[in-house]
From TrEMBL, chain A:
Keyword entries, A-Z: Antibiotic resistance, ATP-binding, Nucleotide-binding, Transport
Protein name: ABC transporter ATP-binding protein
Membrane topology category: Peripheral membrane protein
PANTHER family (alphabetical): ABC TRANSPORTER ATP-BINDING PROTEIN, DOXORUBICIN RESISTANCE ATP-BINDING PROTEIN DRRA
Organism listed in the record: Nonomuraea longispora
SMART domains: AAA
The UniProt record lists the keyword Transport: yes
MF (Gene Ontology): ATP binding; ATP hydrolysis activity
From TrEMBL, chain B:
Key word DNA-binding present: no
Name this polypeptide is given: Transporter
Keyword list, A-Z: Membrane, Transmembrane, Transmembrane helix
TM region positions: 27-51, 57-81, 102-131, 137-162, 174-193, 228-249, 303-320, 332-351, 379-400, 406-432, 453-474, 480-498
Length: 258, 521
């Protein structure tokens, strides 16, 4: 079985700052993979480079065995993307956005209409389908973004913080759809820093810290008997016990001194 | 005093922080500095040259100048240039600042900057122009300062009291389009002058008389009169500034606690499918449909199109003035070409309005061909709106000027110019892309720090179009009307070649293009 995603020494610098310092990410096909790491670890930059939205300064990436920068047609037909933030065509309605997306990829209009209708239905967006995206809430935007990413039936789905700012009901809808998607043998890769969610959903975890992959493998292996949260803190060095000395004033009230 | 220093330093920090690490932004800022310094020097010079004019004319002109600064400060920050986009009172609302201190701080932040300084310098020019003797200067200095303060306070008052409306999408959309009315209004004196109110001096004095008791009028008169009257006028002006300031503080404390008014989302009509009926199913139809929806719905598009039409109308109204014999037989051709040019200039940064959503195209486009299709769709949508407009323009100017034989040449020439504009625009769109901010100021060229880039892009587009237009113009100058018949084909050729070149260059640098149009605004 080939890997859905494999990168070799991906590097990205912004001026003197190194955002991604040689990342070798591996995600087996058919897995529900979580890319976790503290803020600024380089998760978004890595995902942008794999999805050809950002040119790497070094290294290369492969999706389903196709080179991202040398074979863009094959790669772009296979991937679905939901980037960070909520960047969508704001002045289209949800339905128009899906139609635009599908037709841009050359899918016949009748098929796009049918798929869009079903996706809107599953995402519980039928009532808002003809409202402009600019008036959507965060959860609705994430859902319509996911619908747009799924529309052309990709084999690998990249989601950057798909659950950030999403209410529990919408989050449940999103996970249901994603579970169905991976059950059919497709791959999902999503970045997050909500460990509980990753632990619940994923069977494969890659941990990033300061531009490097510090651990990678099946969930049980990375976890090693601990909770994922503890394993994560151990890996990225976030245990705070020796930092408490400088905060003696915190919580102290003036009236206590009297 | 510490508040003043603190906020001045904060503003300078913000300005400096905006520039860090980005050569383009630095370049843009330098360009802004040069332009502001140039305008300040020029304005100061022009103002001081009024010294040579007769006293009453100088006084009236100073009144007019002061009034235009005053109203300019009220209106321009709402619409354009992001004069003070760094300090939103809402950002400071969580700090334990009393409203008074906050107001002092915001005032300081507003006057710290390039454009306020330029305004102050130009206003100072009035001292040279009309103040007489040491007594005049003694009254003049506070008059200039008060005039400047009234500009800033009035400007803040207007923005703050409108901020509630500006936070809703509908409010912003409306404001963006209503800005057009102002453009029309600004043209009014010009048109009046053209229309036979032939005594400019009388008109000048009339306008100055109307403005006599407004804050800028008071300041100007205090400067020119001097003496006790001047002092009284200054006192009145100071009182007015304080009242404006007090109103502003009130508006500020209200704006800070008034929540975002939610937007009532309305449904849009489902597409009529007209495009789908005439175009083959596929990416081209998708782009045309999306682009037509954007032209209808996005305020930046609406303003762009409407201002192109309005400017052309004003021009045709001025040129084809029946009072002057209706213009020559070439007038219809010139007008329709200018109209086409105005419309085509909008395509010089085709991806700018897509902005951060352009990734959706980027992840779908696997080849140059896809990008070329995208550009073709944009051009086709533009043509669907522009071609009928140009036709109407050609017919009306042809009839109004009394040269109906020129209607057909004017029409075809206009179409040709449109094609040339699209061709050049495809190339500038990918070479010099910049972010068009999605804010209320739909007139703004670019995101903070990209102003210079926007300027370069417009310059490049104009130069390219001028170059490609040269053969047509040369033909017309020689009196060869038949070049108009060739123009549409020439335009089509320019569009196809420009689009190919743009797609080739653009596909290779797609990530850079994406980054350039996704700047924070």
């Amino acid at each position: 079985m080939t890997d859905a995603v494999r990168t070799h020494g991906l590097v990205k610098r912004y001026g003197s700052q190194v955002a991604v310092a040689g990342v070798d990410l591996v995600v087996p096909a058919g897995s529900f993979a979580g890319l976790v790491g503290p803020n600024g670890a380089g998760k978004t930059t890595t995902l942008s480079m794999i999805t050809a939205l950002l040119r790497p300064d070094g290294g290369h990436a492969e999706v389903d065995g196709f080179h991202v920068w040398r074979d863009p047609v094959a790669v772009k037909a296979r991937i679905g993307v939901l980037p960070e933030g909520l960047r969508l065509f704001e002045r289209l309605s949800g339905r128009e956005l899906l139609l635009y997306n599908g037709m841009l990829r050359g899918i016949p209009k009748a098929d796009v209409e049918q798929r869009a209708g079903e996706l809107l239905d599953v995402m519980d967006l039928t009532g808002a389908a003809d409202k402009l995206v600019v008036d959507y809430s965060t959860g609705m935007r994430k859902k319509i973004g996911l619908a747009a990413a799924l529309l052309h039936n990709p084999s690998v789905l990249f989601l950057d913080e798909p659950f950030e700012g999403v209410d529990p009901v919408s989050a449940n809808t999103l996970t249901e759809v994603l579970r169905r998607f991976t059950a059919s043998g497709s791959t999902v890769i999503f970045s997050s820093h909500v460990m509980d969610l990753v632990e619940r959903l994923c069977d494969w975890v890659s941990v990033m810290s300061a531009g490097h992959i510090v651990a990678q493998g099946p969930l049980a292996e990375v976890r090693g008997g601990r909770s994922l949260n503890q394993a994560f803190l151990d890996l990225v060095g976030g245990t705070p016990h020796d930092r408490e000395a400088g905060l003696s004033w915190l919580g102290a009230r003036p009236e206590d001194a009297r | 005093m510490s508040t003043v220093l603190l906020f001045a330093r904060l503003k300078v920090r913000l300005l400096a922080g905006n520039l860090r690490g980005d050569a383009q932004r630095k370049l843009g800022f330098v360009l802004t500095l040069v332009i502001a310094a140039g305008l300040a020097a020029l304005g100061f010079l022009l103002m001081s040259l009024l010294r040579l004019a007769p006293g009453d004319i100088a006084a009236s002109l100073v009144t007019l100048a002061f009034a235009s600064f005053f109203f300019g400060w009220m209106i321009v920050p709402l619409l354009a240039f992001g004069l003070d986009d760094t300090l939103d009172p809402a950002k400071l609302s969580l700090f334990p600042l009393r409203t008074g201190r906050l107001a002092v701080g915001m005032f300081t932040a507003s006057v710290t900057g390039v454009w306020p300084l330029a305004t102050l310098v130009v206003t100072g020019g009035a001292l040279v122009a009309v103040a007489s003797g040491p007594g005049g200067v003694l009254i003049g200095v506070p008059a200039v300062l008060l005039q400047f303060a009234s500009c800033v306070v009035a400007s803040r008052l207007v923005t703050t009291s409108l901020s509630g409306a500006l936070r809703t999408r509908r409010g912003r959309d409306l404001l963006a389009v209503s800005a057009l009315a102002l453009v029309l209004l600004a043209q009014l004196p010009n048109l009046l002058m053209n229309r036979g109110f032939s005594d400019p001096t009388a008109l000048l004095h009339q306008m100055a008389a109307v403005l006599r008791w407004t804050p800028p009028g008071l300041a100007a008169h205090a400067l020119a009169d001097g003496g006790l009257t001047g002092l009284a006028e200054l006192a009145l002006l100071a009182l007015l500034v304080v009242v404006l300031g007090w109103l502003w503080v009130k508006a500020l404390s209200r704006a800070l606690v008034t929540p975002d008014s939610s937007t009532q989302a309305a449904s849009v009509r489902r597409g009529s499918g007209l495009v789908g009926r005439f175009l083959p199913d596929g990416p081209l139809a998708a782009v045309v449909t999306k682009e037509l929806a954007y032209i209808r719905r996005d305020p930046r598009f609406r303003v762009g199109w409407a201002s192109a039409i309005v400017v052309t109308l004003i021009l045709s109204f001025t040129v084809s003035d029946p009072g002057r014999g209706g213009g020559g037989q070439w007038t219809p051709i010139v007008i329709s070409c200018v109209g086409a040019l105005m419309i085509a200039l909008q395509s010089g940064n085709a991806f700018g309005i897509d902005g951060r959503s352009l990734w959706m195209n980027a992840v779908a486009f696997g080849s140059e061909r896809d990008l070329s299709t995208d550009l073709a769709g944009r051009h086709l949508a533009g043509t669907l709106v522009a071609a009928p407009l140009i036709t109407v323009l050609a017919v009306t100017t042809g009839l109004l000027t009394g040269h109906p034989t020129m209607i057909l040449p004017a029409m075809t020439a206009g179409w040709g110019v449109l094609g040339i504009g699209f061709g050049v625009g495809s190339v500038t769109s990918v070479i010099l892309p910049y972010t068009v901010p999605d804010r209320m100021n739909a007139f703004t060229g670019a995101a903070p720090g990209q102003g210079g880039l926007a300027f370069l892009s417009a310059l490049g587009a104009s130069a390219g179009m001028a170059l490609l237009l040269a053969p047509l113009v040369a033909g017309l100058l020689l009196g060869l009307v038949w070049v108009c018949a060739v123009a549409p084909f020439y335009g089509l050729l320019a569009e196809v070649l420009g689009r190919r070149l743009g797609a080739k260059l653009g596909f290779a640098r797609m990530p850079d293009l994406l980054a350039a149009v996704s700047k924070p605004t």
